[in-house]
Specification:
Length: about 180
């Protein structure tokens, strides 16, 4: 099903605030809206940590069936993003693990529940794709993210991947 902006899979529509309309769409990882939101996230990293995230990423990892990328729109404007891909690390009693990446809401759209809605979309779509657990990493200075992940039932797990041994990165996981 196509949407007014030409993306392939409209997701749930919700109304986070009176008079505003929120829509999440599954899009290609290198779509300009997804790229712009990741650039916004990199600016956040520079402000919070003094430099960008340098973890390698392959856009092909975020394409079905082994991944997905979503952008959230508020009143037609891209304001939130999130993606997942198959990572296969043995955590939480399974190797059917999806890593959640690049969950971000632009500063002007924060405190409206959009990050939680994006996390829900990532969980639902990863579970439908056959994954049994979600894993993710975040920096120790991302206090808001840490609080949200803990409130959503994510528990700290052993490190993995690019930042496995980095002392300012913590790892979370949850059964789906």
């Amino acid at each position: 099903m196509a949407s007014h902006v030409g993306f392939a899979m409209p997701a749930r529509v919700s109304h986070p605030a009176r008079g505003s309309r929120s829509t999440k769409l599954q899009i290609d990882y290198d779509h300009p809206d997804a790229v712009a939101l990741r650039e916004s996230l990199q600016r956040f990293y520079v402000e919070r940590y003094g430099g960008p995230d340098n973890a390698p990423e392959d856009p092909d990892e975020f394409r079905p069936p082994r991944g997905a990328c979503f952008v959230g729109y508020l009143d037609g404007r891209p304001v939130a993003a999130g993606a997942w891909h198959s990572v296969g690390v043995d955590r939480l009693g399974t190797t059917r693990t999806a890593e959640f990446k690049r969950v971000h809401v632009i500063p002007e759209a924060r405190r409206r529940g959009l990050a939680r809605r994006m996390m829900s979309e990532l969980e639902i779509t990863a579970r439908k794709a056959g994954y049994e657990a979600a894993v993710l990493s975040t920096g120790l200075r991302q206090y808001e993210s840490i609080a949200m992940y803990e409130q959503l039932g994510y528990a700290r797990i052993e490190g993995f991947g690019h930042y496995a041994d980095d002392d300012i990165v913590i790892f979370f996981g949850r059964r789906l």
